Amino acid sequence: MATEMMVYTGGALMCNGYLVRGTGGEWLAVDAPAGFAAWAQSRLPEGARLTHLLLTHQHFDHIQDAAALRRATGCSIHAASPYTPELTLAQNARQWGIAPPEEFAVDAPAGGGDTRADWGGLRWEILHIPGHSRDSLVYVLPEEGELFSGDVLFAGSIGRSDFPGGSSADLTRGIRSKILPLPPQMSVHPGHGPSTTVGDEELNNPFLQG
Question: CA angle at residue 122 from 120 to 125, to 5 degrees?
Fold first, then answer.
């Protein structure tokens, strides 16, 4: 059964951030683009607590409001690796006239392998799929049929692999071996653009054919 969810799109690169309803008044966030912290606080029901921020990767457009969200809510921040300016592409941001993100501490980095977690009363599966960024994670709610793909997989496309640490071969291999075997009706919520399903991407995504 799908869980209650809200999506925000903002920042210079029109990045998606998600609010996901857990249990017992807890909510979780997936990524935190610019403007997300204030938006999330305005959307949370009265008495709700935002307890966890799950980062799909640390490119600047996905973490611009991570520090602000922690200050406002006290949430834990989860990511594959500790914060480093290299992972954030801070130098690229400056070249494009975008302020680099504020540094924050990552709670219990997930490391380089696949794992599971219980956050907000929900059972999560965390898939490590490098290729767009070496720290890219995909968060799956198998019981709810929801998947948050960050910049790994989009509707009709896949993530860029020309940034430092990128690899198109690693990216497509990871998508084919870890995402496409999931149920075809599972919803895919990407870091940019509209949602899709695993089945639609397996059948129609030109980067995954052949």
Answer: 115
Q: Hey, which bits of the chain come out as E strands?
A: 5-10, 15-21, 26-30, 49-54, 76-78, 115-119, 122-128, 137-141, 146-150, 153-154, 157-158, 187-190, 196-197
Assign 210 to helix, strand or coil.
Answer: coil
What is d(CA 145, CA 197) in angstroms, rounded to the nearest whole number? Answer: 10
- How many Cα atoms sit within 13 Å of 210 on the Cβ side? 2
**What is the Cα–Cα distance from 171 to 10, expressed in whole angstroms?**
25
Contacts of 143 (CB under 8 A, 6+ apart): 1, 122, 123
CA distance 41 to 166: 34
pTM: 0.96
Torsion, Cα of 44, 47, 52, 53 (10° steps): 20
Q: Which helix (H) or strand (E) holds 205?
A: none
What single-letter amino acid sits at 180?
A: L
Convert 18-47 to b/e letters by CB count within 10 Å (16 or more is b).
bbbbbeeebbbbbbbbbbbbebbeeebeee
Q: Give the separation between CA 81 and CA 83, rounded to whole angstroms.
A: 6
Q: Is the pLDDT of residue 1 over 60?
A: no
Q: Which amino acid is at 126?
A: I
pLDDT tens readout for residues 159-197: 999 988 899 999 999 999 999 999 999 999 999 999 999
